[in-house]
Amino acid sequence: MAKSRKSRRGATAASVAETVDGGLAELIPDPDRARAWTLLLDGAPQSHVDLDDPGFLSFEYQRRLGHVIDLVAPPGRPVRAVHLGGGALTLARYVAATRPRSTQQVVERDAPLVELVRRELPLDRTARIRVRSTDAREGLAKVPDGWADLVVADVFSGARTPAHLTSTEFLDEVRRALAPGGWYAANLADGPPLTHLRGQIATAAARFAELALVADPTVLRGRRFGNAVLVAADQPLPIPELTRRAASDPHPGRVEHGRALRDFTGGATPVTDTSAVDSPAPPASAFT
Prior knowledge:
This protein is of the alpha/beta class. It has 9 helices and 13 strands. An 8-stranded mixed sheet has the order 8-7-6-9-10-12-11-13, with helices on both faces.
């Protein structure tokens, strides 16, 4: 296993580079925040963590998932959350900070990455976070029926979501793990002509009664590659509040739901295990 360190801010911080299952993992100090770090995998930004302020979410898509976490239950109430995909455990840390006494399970296949993050960016000892190093769908299958108030899917392998995490059969497993009234949220990435994104909305609509999509308007118009956060539940979602929060972000997002979201799918059909493919690879310009 290759490992190197390079000074970034004198004696106070140093970057860390280590080979993990997913490629070269780098932890880069944030020059503007004393104990904050960005995780890159093969040069692609994956997570940002501020150890002094785990309630701070730097990445656009993580802020939008943070809004979902804020709205899934009354403020401060503990929840049971499952995170498929761990990265630097940013969202699990956020839940622990904003909803103390929450119980969380994180499923992250890359065991060397988990070891790196635990060593260099240690979790608060009071946080009730259990990390499983296994495939996301296999880990989800071990969650008890009706256990989770929230399931968050943020899984990328080589900057692409694996096919087996995009199907109706996968969502059947999500529904099994969700408690009555629970929510599902997924970080999706796509670019023009948005075939993957439209298919994922159609797939979620085949399994959940209520959907909302939060994204940058330029992504929704198919003008650039980017992230979109899909939220699904079986009861009405707090669309006005989600809209207000997304619009107040540093990079304002737009919320689509109801008829407009159904029209957005453009006749796409649900994805099954037999038809599923990985999400599209981002263009080289996506991280520059």
